Amino acid sequence: MKIFVEKIIGIGRKKNLDLVVFRTFAAPKVKETTIIQNNMKRFLSIITLLIIVITVNAQTTIKGVLVDSLTNEGEPYATIRIYNVKNSEKPVAMALTDINGKFSPTVAANGNYVITISAVGRVTINRNFTVAGQKEIDLGTLLIRDDAKTLGAVKVVGQKPIVKMEADKMTYSVEDDPDSKAMTVLDMLRKVPMVTVDGQDNITVNGSSSFKVYVDGKPNPMFSSNASTIFKAMPASMVKSIEVVTNPGAKYDAEGAGGILDIKMAGMNNGGSKESLNGYNGSVNVNGGNKGVGGGFYIAGQQGKLSYNANANYTYMDNGTVDVTMTRKQSDGSTMEYAQASNNKLPYTSGNFAIGYEIDSLSAINASLGFTAMNIKNTSNPTTHLYGGVYGQGFSYGNTSTVNINNKSINGSLDYQRFFNAERSSSLTVTYLINSNPGKNDTETSYSVPQSYSQLIDLTDRASYGKTNTLENILQLDLVTKLSSVSTLNSGLKYANRHSTSDMDYYYGGKYESSQSTDYSNTDQIGAVYAEMVNQWQKWSLKAGLRYEQTWQKVKFNEGNGEDFTKQYGNLVPSASLSRTLKPGSSIGLTYNMRISRPGITYLNPYVDRTDPTALTYGNKDISVEKSHNVSLVFNSYSQKLMWNATLRQTFGDGGIEQYSFYDENNMLNTTYGNIVNRRVTSLTLFASWLMTRTTRLIFNGGGSYNDFRSKELNQNAYGWMGNAMFAVQQTLPKNWNVTGTIIANSNNITLQGTTSAFNMGIISVSKSLLNDKLSVSASFIAGLSKGGKLHLDQYSEGKGFSNQMNITVPLTRVQATVTWKFGNTKKQFQAHKTNVQNDYIEKKSKEESIGSVGNM
User: Fold this and answer.
1) What are the residues whose beta carbons fall under 8 Å from the beta carbon of 126, sequence distance 6 or more?
2) Closest CA to 698 of 627, 642, 768
3) Would you state the pLDDT for residue 601?
4) In whole angstroms, what is the distance from residue 209 CA to residue 205 CA?
5) In degrees rounded to 5, what are phi and psi of residue 54?
6) What is this structure's pTM?
7) I need a labelling partner for 800 at 20 to 30 A (CA). Which of 31, 73, 397, 771 fits?
């Protein structure tokens, strides 16, 4: 009798039914060698198949999410180890939590296990579980909290990464950067990936000056239209983090070609904590230096189900004297030489209050109210010399110019959120927002008329007084539906009513000129609907969505030259992102989105500014929506000492909105706006943070781009390379001292009609914590790396019938000191920044435990 393997029964039908049935029967009378060979081949094939099936079936995914017990935010890059209870020396699996605190390592055999989750300065979590053939074990949400003993005893500790990197956004933790104690938000933006700040403090996101600013996840028109000015006046200590949303999904408004800057203010999440603080914490700060003084406070707390936070800030800035010289030449030889020394003074005030109430374990209501005000005052006494061409031998004149710009913003919000399950994976959110932005822009110009001058220009005194306001009401509904363990559907509706008014009065020789004045209104009603599918597998994630926005526009002229009109248009805006985890701590992603830019009241306003006797400035009511397409390839990597990001991006779009200038037949320089530029930009941005030693960290933020701008309307084009770099060294010294040195350099900047020269600057900041981190003292020094510490910029532009050379000297040197006092009665207050080393250090591991050698994510 011979024994043969006849067949396999039940393989693949049930998890625990991997059976092989052996039967005995009489062997046929064949050649023995052939029988043995054939049977061995069949037997080995079956054994191989069995091994594959058993291995596949035995793989069990252990998933969960790790969140901070106080803020309810995901805890990124915590270390996950899984041990068999019979052997606690060597882990059977290791991984890191992802950017949102999620983890999903696997184990390959049945048995009893223990998972340990650790992070520096945190209490280690231990959970026992049993694998008995399940495909997946969900540990749910695990809360991690600070270890008071560790924080109080250890001198050299680590902290969570200063930058969270994802395929579609970057989050810079301002509160974890020691430089934030002594700098403004604008200074911190120079460190933020994907953001560039030039020598004149102009901000670009992904290489575009068209971006939107959100505050705590809600759009803020005042910040969007005055970003540079506000961020320059706002202390960085008031900000928790800055999110750069490079690939906004369908949930976000379609506006903003460059993306979105979301400013998260210091304070606690309303209704977000799963543990009651029953206390409060806050801080008070004062600062002063050669460019101004200021102060502010914030307080946040919770009592049972009620949470609240409030902050206020006042800053008075004197930016010093800016010197400007300009030479403008026309094609007929006419030349204008202009020189001006001006001084800007900026008082800035802001305040915000938010309150939240947790109705029950699944629902909460939140409300907020904010106020911002700023007033820019500028007085100058320029001199102008005209000669050549139509001006003949030439003449000179002087004038006194006074500009007063006053902008305010009042905003409020009310939202209700309801979760449909205990896991909080499905929810409904209803939000109402209101924003009002009244503003004034007054310009007065008086001339010192020479006894003999050309009649080709009019030197009559003149003034322009303008009042504007934009009132916006928004109602939005967002629905999150968990379809399966890997799929989520985001959908929603939105209605916005944006009513803008502009009343511009023009005075000539002291008399009101109704024919040159305008009073008009522009109303945009926008309806939007969106749907977005999010799929998250073990190593792959896919997000794809569509958003449709319909706009109804109505323009009405109450006074001035203009005809009432209405129009409507729709935009279908797609977005998608695909990413893959390569190994624990590294991923690659491909993203695409289309963005639009609706022209605001500044672009559309037909009022003609005649305060300059040689130039006219006005808007263009015929501007249409700008559309741009963005494709990005993103690589993120995080290890024990090095984290870095590389993003290759292609942006293209036709009919872009651009400001341009030209001379008319009356020898006047006209400046206006139009859909005149076709853009093609290919860019590579890099960010890296390297923990060189336990007390030294190096940071690099920069990139380069090739830009191609073309305009058929102007018959002009411009193309070339641009680049920028920021390099910083952060050093921790004994006795709680921190020192940072930063070098910033930008290459020439290219626009359609001209260029701006390169610049470089340096920053040094020093900070020290005292009294168990309750008191901090910091100082910063900023200067240009050229003679006198000033910033020297050369601008060149040319257009129809002219060329223009401008030289600008900015007194950049700034010295500032800041003192901050923290108070409160919650543990979170004194543990939030309790670290002597601002770095990403993780404890050393043996070679066997090296995360890099385990591919379990």
Assistant:
1) 114, 115, 116
2) 642
3) 75
4) 6
5) -65, -40
6) 0.77
7) 397
What one-letter code names the amino acid at 351?
G
* Per-residue model confidence as pLDDT tens digits over 146-162: 765 544 433 333 445 67
Here the tokens at position 527 are 């309806």
Of the listed ranges 643-652, 779-788, 798-807, the one predicted with least confidence: 779-788
Closest CA to 592 of 249, 245, 204, 209: 249
Buried b / exposed e along 145-161 (16+ C-beta atoms within 10 A): ebbeeebeeeeebbbbb
Q: CA 783 to CA 762: how far, in whole Å?
A: 6
Amino acid residing at 813: T
Q: What is the CB neighbour count within 10 angstroms for residue 530?
A: 23
| Rg of the Cα atoms in the chain | 32
CB contact at 8 A, 282 and 261? no
Residue 549: both structure tokens together? 């926005």
760-766 long-range contacts, Cβ below 8 Å, gap at least 24?
Answer: 760/784, 760/785, 760/786, 761/199, 761/785, 761/791, 761/812, 763/179, 763/183, 763/187, 764/739, 764/740, 765/178, 765/179, 765/181, 765/182, 765/183, 765/739, 765/740, 766/182, 766/737, 766/738, 766/739, 766/740
Burial class for 735, CB neighbours closer than 10 Å (0-12, 13-18, 19+): exposed
575 with 250: CB under 8 angstroms? yes
Which among 692, 827, 783, 731 has a CA at the least distance from the CA of 178?
Answer: 731
Q: Which amino acid is at 644?
A: W
Phi first, then psi: what are they for 75, rounded to 5°?
-100, 105
Show Cβ contacts of residue 51 under 8 Å, excluding neighbours closer than 6 positions: none
pLDDT band at 40 (very low <50, low <70, confident <90, very high): low
Cβ neighbours of 333 (radius 10 Å): 11
Q: For residues 673 and 620, give the distance between their C-alpha atoms in angstroms, rounded to a whole number.
A: 6
**Tally: H helices and E strands in the chain:** 7, 48
